[in-house]
Specification:
With 392 residues, the protein is mainly α. The chain is built from 16 helices and six strands. The two termini are 29 Å apart.
Amino acid sequence: IIEEVAVRHGLAALMQEKPFNDVNGSGKHNNWSIGTEDGIMLLHPAKVNKATGNDTAFAVIMSAIIAAVNEHGDLMRMAIASPGNDFRLGACEAPPAIVSTYLGEDITFYLSHFKDGKGEGEYIPKLKTLDLGTHEVLPFEVPAEDRNRTSPFPYGGARFEFRAVGSSQNVSMVNTVLNTIVAEKFAEFADRVDAGEDIHDIARETLNEHWRVIFNGNNYDEEMQQELTDRGIWRIDSGVEAIATITSEKNVNLFQKMKVLTKEECESRKDILHDHYTGTVDMEAKCLVDMLNQHIIPSVKAAGVGPLSDLEAAVGTLKAAIAEIHAAEDSYKAAQLARVLRLETMIDIRAVCDSAEEVVPANLWTLATYKELMFLDSHTASTPETEPFFDE
């Protein structure tokens, strides 16, 4: 829909995660919740506790989800791996590539007491009044939980929000992973109960084992990121390496056990995702070669100023890197080379191009500037083909 609407207005929606350097990009928020066939919301404390007749049902469910995130954070990172997301994750616009979960002070306090045997009562979310400041909408009450915009996977009241998905990504893999890892934990709990264990003991043991993955602080803070890394929480900075985890023994066993994917299907998806990563970088690198040859180098020559020799050398560097990628022994190696090209080589070359733009006169610079791209209304001259028509 976005792409079709853009065309109607003479635009193109690229869905790129990071089109402009030093300017916030875009992503998706994947709101995830689960329920029974008859509509009972398992992440709604009051509803699930009432339906089960068990005041601690919500605590048991949350313990299973917390364990799933802690054990399979690598798969969650795999599900959001893309070339564009490698530019975003960790910046002050998207959660870092460290997979923790935010629960908020109220739930954390409640679960802490539950796991330590200090109480087994029902969790009752606090409410807060939201006042929009308008006469048309009266103040109304909403759950007090704050989903924490710095967390990759915060609880936000009756659902979790996976906040690190790339804007260009299809969310099918994201939700396949979330459903599979949680279903595995539910199955493990059920098997242990069937074997005679007490569900509350299972939940407490699980929370104590996986408590480290709960983090209610600022995920953008580098000191906090180091703390999470020291805890041993899953951290995979490279999208290429994250994709590779889908074929680890742990993850293949998971998908096979849950009858979601076979080993061969895991391997196929790894190759496809790596090829997509490489293909995206390949097109962007070739586009940069064309921009250099057809615009930047001619502009520098016409102006008689700028780093001409560095720009000409950059073309050779890019072509050599592209050729090395094409000659790679497999999809994984090609993707590794592509990531270096995109996040290191092309970044360095971009700096050279920027230095040329700084000195070439505007009338000789044939590419659109940031000012023109981002402020079309005030920095471009266009005359409508027809007079505007207003229907009275």
